[in-house]
Amino acid sequence: MTFSRLEDRRLVTGAGRYVSDWNFPGQLHAAFLRADRAHARIVSINTEAARAMPGVRVVLTAADTAAAGFRSLPCAAPIPGKGGSALLKPERPVLAGDVVRFVGECVACVVAETAIAAQDAVEAIIVEYEDLPVAMTAEAAVAPGAPQLHPGIPGNVAIEFETGDPAAVAAAFEGAAHVVSLDLHNQRVVGSPMEPKGCLARHDASTGDYFVHVCTQGTTGMRAQLVATTGVPDEHVHIVAEDVGGGFGLRFNAYPEYSAIMLAARLAGAPVRWVASRSEVFLSDEHARGVTSRGEVALDAEGHFLAFRFNFLNDMGAYIAPTGPVVAVLSIRACLAGVYRVPAAVANVRLALTNSVPMAAYRGAGRPVISYMIERLVDQAATDLGIDPVELRRRNLIPTAAMPWKTVNGLGYDSGDFPAVLDKALGLSDWNGFSARRAEAGARGMLRGIGIATFIESTGGGASPDEVEARFGDHGEITIHAVSHSHGQSHETAYAELLASVLGLPRERFRLRNGDPGVRLAGNPTGGSRTMHGVGSALRVLADDIIAKGRELAARALEAASADIEFDNGVFRIAGTDRSVSLDALIERHAAGPERVFDTRSSARTGSTFPNGCHVAEVEIDPATGVVSIERYTAVDDAGNLLNPTIVAGQMHGAIVQGAGQVLGEHAIYDLETGQFLTGSFMDYAMPKAVNVHGLTIADHPVPTPTNLLGVKGVGEAGVTGSLPALMNAILAALRPVGVTHFDMPATPARVWGAVGAARAGDGRRFAHA
Amino acid sequence: MSQVSLTVNGKAVSVDVEDRTLLSSVLRENLGLTGTHIGCDTSQCGACTVHLDGRVVKSCTVLAVQAAGSDVMTIEGLAPSHDPSGATLHPVQQAFSECHALQCGFCTPGMIMAVTGLLKDTPDPDEQQIIHGLEGNLCRCTGYVNIVKAVKQAASALRA
After folding, report:
1. Into which CATH architecture does domain A8-61+97-132+197-275 fall?
2. Which pLDDT value is given to residue A154?
3. Contact check, Cβ <8 Å, B105/A11
4. What CA–CA distances, in Å, run from B84 to A465, B9, B73, B110?
5. I need a surface site. Which of A36, A339, A724, B101 has the fewest CB within 10 A?
6. Do residue B39 and residue A278 have CB atoms under 8 angstroms apart?
7. Of A192, A739, A191, A678, nearest to A447 (Cα)?
8. How confident is residue A532, by pLDDT bands cut at 50, 70 and 90?
């Protein structure tokens, strides 16, 4: 059967409706004045000239948001800090009034009749600043004598987390035959969805209702944060989200601009739309990663891991984004020792505030931080000890028979077959044939390397149950409502196919609404690769609930006891007879009546799942240019049962290449002295392109999880969790023979070329961060 | 202000715009053709790609006044250009859907317009020509793997 998604037709014909595509009568346009410096006291803001410009309707500053009763944007820690300590929360205003703390922070908002007029007026606002010293890196921010960003957060450390048993680890290191350590920097990146973020707010003065059209990953989180910030009661905030051009984690939170646009719409008495330019996206979208880390592994004489010790210092930016602490710590805690049998492990995570854009989730959201740390450390140990990297992993993998596995810090993995996943990847990648390929490449003057990563990750458990609702229309259509928003993940198709297969109805009967202000459901935004096990399980319950209703109606229609009614492939039948009635016929008979008997709301609550995999990357480096080419990439993943393998493969492709983007070029760079952002456009920020990836092989080794009704694990982030370490291990494998001993991402041509040259001159660590 | 007359998707239109107005703004704001997307402000992403007198251009890099008298085709006009009834998709659109070459769909209209132009100039492109042809269009979702596949499928469909 030809593949196609239910969402495709509108998207390939240009009929999608993204935020900037909405227009309402009388609509006005907003633009923001942003801080042009990284740390400064605001002495005065003069908006007089701007207010007098043609077409200007409203100018907002911090005085206006204060008058409206706005509060700090929210933030929280998912678990207590070390010794029970609490998160020190910085006050984060919607519009800065006293101090600006990063380049791009919003200072004022102008609403005018056209977007161009609003931008012109923004440029007429005069702000007098008194510059303050800056702290641009986490290391600089926690150093003695560093500039202090917030009152009440001494040393710029908002919280310190610890997971694991430091005493047990110290004892293990005491008695170890070998200790290997590695410093790594996981550089700051910008998620860069292709749709720049935007917001359109309408205010109904007669009811007090706000309708907020916004780029979101799910209405519940967005609404809760807007309510917390604006003080507008929950029942008056309605989030509208149709098509959204990518999320990747950075559209979970309510950006300050959105609250400002709500206020602007009320004060202007008209719909107000704001769409960010790409420059604004770079300056104000949450950035991600930005973690300086040190890992140590203790081994016995036979190469068995005795203990892991990790220290992470996270650059959190100037404020704590709502999801920032979650990203910083939860994945590390959930998968502290990866796929390995380790008697002791500990991780320490410190969150530091710097004069930069706040950091939060980006595909992987901490998973590629811990997997990158562990897998590069394991490779370093293999190199230092002279053990084959595959053999070292094999010696330490958690055996399949040991599942379910209690992890070293007391959590657990429900299922997995790590050795088989490894074997399959070795076979598909022709690991054993590598030396011949390296020799062939060497004859052409190229450096060829192969790298491996065996990894595991934890998918989001969800903060609330996932509710779904089916509404049966008058013309046979069945509308499914869910919270988790679809912005590339193909939920429209996946949900419909799941329900169609259980109910025996064509998938075209189903349509999905996940940003409909008329339907309020409990649930979780899309994130943490959790939708199919969370919402999917709820849909499975929904299908069963619909079948149960159908069974009662069928029993009546067939004049039989409902216990005698079987359901198979869309048909209810009295067991052992040929007397039957289809679900479709019952829907036609009953669904449209005033009682709407088939309309159903169901829910499910699932925990985390543990997708895992083995990725093998093979790269070729031209030492004359430093260009890295990915020649082969093999991904074998255990994502549990696959509902639609084409969609799953698409998720893998995208995530692997996002990892390749970070490995090969993406790097968000601030000037360390001025705090200016140096990579603020697609000319300066190297997004991956089609040229970067060749020979991708995607395969699966499903071990269905018993923890949800579908046996599915998450799949959205595994690609990047695997590709970051696999690719960098391959690059190091290619560079070690010329004398490079350490190298931090990104492997841009200039850095790789420089590393090769420095290594040949005797310095193998020139392009290491630390 | 200038009055600009042009043909868009076969229809004659005339708009009054400030001289600094971009073609992309005219298409989206004046004509309501929101399938042409704006993804950057430096002509890197290609989401705004349209055909101007049969050539592939990024409409964010063309002033509306430069397009005066020209013939513009946007994503909304592509399927009808292939099948005036609009019932079937253009082979490039069809291939993108069948190859799962789109996820969030934001880059897709620009990708499709760029690929349609590529295949007009190079009806039987090899892998390198496809990769080179996609150089001016960014996608964050697909990793380009299935886009390259879709270009190949569309190429053979168009040659058939």
Report:
1. Alpha-Beta Complex (3.90)
2. 97
3. yes
4. 48, 11, 14, 21
5. A36
6. yes
7. A739
8. very high
